[in-house]
Amino acid sequence: MRLTADIWVSAYLTRLRLANIPAFVVKRGDSTAGAVLVKLNTLDGQARCFQRRFNLMTAERQWIVLTEGDEADVDVSTAKQRSFDPDLWVIEVEDRQGRHLLDEPGLE
């Protein structure tokens, strides 16, 4: 059984808060089945956007980098994704050290 998007987002934001990593919801998507993008803003003009994809080779879901580079370019890419998918969630994480926690158990 898969978690709903709103429960996963809530748990992710809580985990970030416990690690003292600021994050906020930029766009709230469909509460049950919306896909999630995570934008990591390193506060130096650079950013990365992560998307969860299904890996056919391993039959697992994993986070991949959708785009990275100048924050403005990442924002353009994220806006483009939002235009394709009205159910999409966008979470922005702000951390100078580049921490996003997506590789931790339970979030991968």
Strand content: 35-45%
Structural class: alpha+beta
Summarize the main sheet: 5 strands, mixed
- Mean pLDDT equals 92
CATH superfamily: Protein of unknown function (DUF1491)
What's the layout of helices and strands?
Elements: H1 5-18, E1 23-27, E2 36-41, E3 46-55, E4 60-70, H2 71-84, E5 89-94
Top keywords for this entry?
108 residues, alpha+beta, hypothetical protein tt1805, 5-stranded mixed β-sheet, 5 strands, 26% helix, 35% strand, globular
Q: How does this model look, in words?
A:
This protein is of the alpha+beta class and 108 residues long. The protein has a single domain, classed as hypothetical protein tt1805 (3-Layer(aba) Sandwich), CATH 3.40.1530.20. It is 26% helix and 35% strand. It has two helices and five strands; from the N terminus they run H-E-E-E-E-H-E. It has a five-stranded mixed sheet with strand order 1-5-2-3-4. It is globular.
